[in-house]
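Deliverable D5.2: sample structural annotation.
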Amino acid sequence: MHRFPLPHQTVRGTRLRVTVDKPNGTTPKKPRRTQEERSATTKHALLEATLTCLDELGYAATSTTEIAERAGVSRGAQLHHYPTKAELVASAVEYIFQKRLDEFRASFSALPADADRTTAAIELLWKMTSGPAFHAWLELLVAARTDPTLRASMTSISARFWAGVRGAFHEAFPHLAGVPAVDNAPWFTLAVMQGLALERIVLGDDARIDLGLAIIKGLGAKTLTPRS
């Protein structure tokens, strides 16, 4: 029986070479990502995983090992970007609140000219006191009471956050530039709303929550109206 030589065999001292033609339309290789792009992707995954852990597990049960596992990154990569748990969780909350501020500004810029901007502002702030990001913030506030390192981080983040909210309000209400309440109204409103949000965790959809929001809107309409 005649046997055909295999690719690794020789015929009359000549080594055979097998050439496989690539099919037409082969997808070209994607360009290799830069170190900066890979780093940004890793940090984003870690921050999102941290928020999820804080929301689902609470601060005490959140560990950097759990965060790295959920983010799908190595422990070494996690430690390279965020050496401590306090740095990681604080950065995660600052990250999400910056996104919320961007959304706040974008929502206001999309409002029609004849919209009730005071009511819209209060409703947008109320949205910022719900969901995973707010629950993560609450976890960190409570933990910071007995953790000096975390408290220092939270103090710094809080200052930047309030500065951002104040700036967003000035952008939203440019006609109220001379009204002193514009600087303090967002702080007072969010402080009251955080209290309502805590009550909502225990009480659920209680009618008193809606009543509290109605009172805030009434105060806002009176406070943010320029005096003639």
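Annotation notes: DSSP finds nine helices and two strands in the chain. The two ends are 109 Å apart (CA to CA).
The annotation will be released with the project's public dataset once the embargo ends.
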